[in-house]
Amino acid sequence: MKKFLLSFLFSFLTTSSILSQCYTAYRDAVWDSSSAIIRKDDGTLWIKAYTNYYGMFANGTNVTTPIAWYQLGTDNNWSDEFSLYYHALAIKNDGTLWSWGNNDYGQCGLGYSFPTLTATVNTPTQVGTDTNWVKVAVGWYHSLGLKSDGTLWSWGANSGGSLGINSTVISVSTPTQVGTQNDWKDIYADWDVSFAIKTDNTLWSWGQDGNLLHPQSRIPLQASNYTWKKISLSSYRRGLGIKMDGTLWYWGSGFGVLNIATTTITPDVYGLKQIGTDNDWQDISQGTSHIMALKSNGTMWSAGLNESYDLGDGTNINRSNLVQIMPQMNWSSIEAGNHLGSAINTEGELYTWGGSAITNPTQVGVNCLLSVKEENSINQIIIYPNPTTGIVYFETETFGSYNYKISNTIGQVVKKFNNSNNYTTQIDISDLVEGVYFVTIENGVNTITKKIIKQ
Predict the structure, then answer these.
(1) Suppose 159 and one of 80, 192, 331, 341 were both cysteines; which one would form an S-S bond, judging by CB atoms 3.0 to 4.6 Å apart?
(2) Rounded to two decimals, what is the model's pTM?
């Protein structure tokens, strides 16, 4: 069954009939890679699913035959913010939240759960009426959501206190606020555990203790005295994190099987071990048997078990030390799955590997240009450096006046500026958080949108 599933999934990943545009985000159901979602740069979402048992086809049917990549409805206003396991959550550019899939414990957030109504939701359904959702994270049977006002919300199964609402209730079927704080900025969920990072970069966690940095808790507790940039969780009771100083660390009971070499021989008081000594890590992702990491210079690295070509290094040799993958490429995002790996480069091109089928990163679909959208086309505009850590230059071929608008991936305008009678415009985006942004440039007649990466 495993070989059939992996082969089937890669028949999806190498299908090019719908892949005529470039990509901004990709998510995999890490536990078994039974489904995945990808967002194209035109704002549409596309799904692949091995089974519709949990309604993950999201097409309103009960068809069980595996379906290759297909578009989720006709909407083209989806943001880059979505998450999935056996249910899925996705945010649109207008800040509304939508869900589908398994709803046994109310994890879809629609106010009911099995057996009151159906255990599955087989079409995207809006969660409440709020329009200020900015981030989502899903565990096996629970969900987390973050609003633009910094408040944190949870719903679904409360196994081990994973909802963080200081209650022994079995489940909650509508979004319920976690505490009263409004200084949360990032959220993570897995199995029956939840993590979150505050605006002061402190890390907090609650739920079962197998993946926590403290005993089981039904309310958020600070996980360490360190400050963190981001983390990644695994259903195998292990955590991976980047501290604010750019160093890479792991914890939990499941890392021993990966045999990943560490700088720290004995774990610190929190059970943390450092991986290597580099301090320029930017992004991370965990699969079932390997880890992936991205540096601020756009290089991609992986380590762990490699029996199914999980690492993408062209071999099936296990690696205890991080090895660089496709050094000639500049990467912007990574996603580790069940013996699979995926990554998007800075031009929006998707590459996949693993599953006992593909030994090296292989491009899905066609080449992409950094341009996302062109209307009548302005004369060539050169953007450099891209990616950038702060200063970025916009250089035009013709002398003239241009208006610039920078938006984030959920459509919010974060900067506006103009350039009158000049060839080159300099803008400082060092105050923006790391990620992908879109710059719309217009001269009163024509418009072009470019993608920039803030590191």
Answers:
(1) 192
(2) 0.79
